[in-house]
Amino acid sequence: MKKEILNLTQHIVTDEQVKDGVFEPHNEDKEKIKEILTFKNLPSKDDIKNRANKLRAFVITYGVDKVMIGGAPYLMSELEKSLKEFNIQPLYSFTQRISIAKNINGEKVKTSIFKHIGFVEVWI
Q1: Could you please report the per-residue DSSP string of 28-68?
Q2: DSSP class of residue 10?
Q3: Residue range 6-46, pLDDT digits in tens
Q4: How many whole angstroms from its chain centre is CA 32?
Q5: I need a labelling partner for 103 at 20 to 30 A (CA). Which of 8, 16, 33, 41 fits?
Q6: Do the beta carbons of residue 63 and residue 51 sit within 8 Å?
Q7: Element (H, E) at 104
Q8: pLDDT of residue 53
Q9: CB–CB of 71/9 below 8 Å?
Q10: Ranges of each domain in the chain
């Protein structure tokens, strides 16, 4: 599968996402992306726009036209707009929650995993 979708989230791509063409940015870029996606204080409108444009700049350096996005909802709408201005398609991973029950030392422990099923495109 051709790697054509840049992971622009804080999370590591799953095996299912890799099969769908998602790839990770370089390590130093991944750390910078995490910093941009993380808000420690109440952001202003300008801060949100600046962060969206910084993220878009990363995408442009990778030369892709599709990115997997996710994070704070108040940033995602601005990021969608910023990417679309440069004909870059933002995608959200659609996942299903799968519950697994295990017996551990006589106790039933229930955990959930999220399985990537496909992508939801943004149509703005």
Answers
A1: HHHHHHHHHH--SSPPPHHHHHHHHHHHHHHHHHHT-SEEE
A2: S
A3: 999 999 999 999 999 999 999 999 999 999 999 999 999 99
A4: 14
A5: 16
A6: no
A7: strand 89-104
A8: 97
A9: yes
A10: 5-121
Backbone φ, ψ for residue 59 (5° rounding): -60, -45
User: Under a CB-based contact definition with an 8 Å cutoff, are residues 71 and 51 in contact?
Assistant: no
CA angle 91/93/94 to nearest 5° reads: 125
What six digits make up the tokens of 32? 């910078």
**Do the Cβ atoms of 77 and 69 come closer than 8 Å?**
no
How many residues belong to the chain? 124
pLDDT value for 107:
86
Tokens of 79: 């990021």
Q: Torsion angle, CA of 44/66/28/35, rounded to 10 degrees? A: 20
Question: In the structure, what pLDDT confidence band is assigned to residue 2 with cuts at 50, 70 and 90?
Answer: low
- 115: helix, strand or coil: strand
Strand order in the sheet with 89-104: 22-23, 5-8, 66-69, 89-104, 107-121
Structure tokens at 98: 């799968």
